[in-house]
Amino acid sequence: MGLLSNRVERTQIKAGDHIYTWRAIYTYSHHGIYVGGSKVVHFTREQNASSSISYPSSASKLPSACPIFPDCGFRQPNSGVILSCLDCFLGNGSLYHFEYEVTPSYFLAKVRGGTCTTAKPDPPETVIHRAMYLLQNGFGNYDVFQNNCEDFALYCKTGLLVLDKSGVGRSGQASSVIGAPLAALLSSPLKLLIPGPAGVATVTAGMYCMSRYATDIGVRTDVIKVAVEDMDAILDWSGTSEEEAEDKEASDRQNSHSLTGSSLIVKQKASRWQWRRALMLGSGETREGS
């Protein structure tokens, strides 16, 4: 491993390591947690799930059946967390090791995002526990920018989650995709002050690196440490499908309408009672006056 490449041999990885492999001619990387025994737990798009965003899906690379490991491909219904053997995880790609606790200078020198972080990892046994727990309970809905395979691996290694769900997630790969055009946009007004295209390119590259560093999970301040057993309660990651969520929403609306109707009936009965009481009081006053 080094500044140019994090490529490793299979004999170099240990249980609890965050590993990844490049797909589609280095277009994007797919991440997972090596749990030992030639097995990897990783996060993919759910089977038969659709998305309005066109993006390479790592799930399409998974074989339907593994000839070596019978439990390869195991996943819970409506969950994107899957157990694969190392061969099926890599496909035809090479094996890379994700680095933790790197220095800021080392991080900035890595031009490609999604290869390292300044965050401190937890012990291997904790990492494996999180990965296996999420294999049974799910990791929410897959999202390219806010909840992808790298986000899954980063959480398993650190236990850190981003509080602001409206922005980019923990993934360095996603922040690189967003950071490049943002850097170009921010540097455009500076073109009038910087002589020559070389100066503009330098400023753009610097802004890109700084924006990527600012979104690193080891630097940003909008993250919290969350126990894996508490994720359902804190983030409402129940692993239910969209159909179940829609059914629940329809049921809630129906119950709301029923309660509204009951309230109207109660109000009508109360109004009739008040009207009758007023008549009785009026009759009593008339009799007393006579």
CATH class of the largest domain: Alpha Beta
In total, the number of domains comes to: 2
In one word, what is the shape? globular
What is the third-level CATH name, the topology of the largest domain? endopeptidase fold (from Nostoc punctiforme)
Question: How can the largest sheet be summarized?
Answer: 5 strands, antiparallel
**Tally of alpha and pi helices:** 8
- Give the strand order, joined by hyphens, for the main sheet: 4-3-2-1-5
Beta-strand percentage range = 5-15%
Helix amount: 40-55%
The SS-based structural class is: alpha+beta
Specify the CATH homologous superfamily of the largest domain: endopeptidase domain like (from Nostoc punctiforme)
Report the end-to-end length measured between terminal Cα atoms: 107 Å
Low-confidence stretches: 49-60, 182-188, 285-290
Radius of gyration: 28 Å
Query: How many strands?
Result: 7
Helix-strand string: EEEEHEHHHEHHEHH
* CATH architectural name of the largest domain: Alpha-Beta Complex
**Mean pLDDT across residues:** 77
Pfam family, one: LRAT
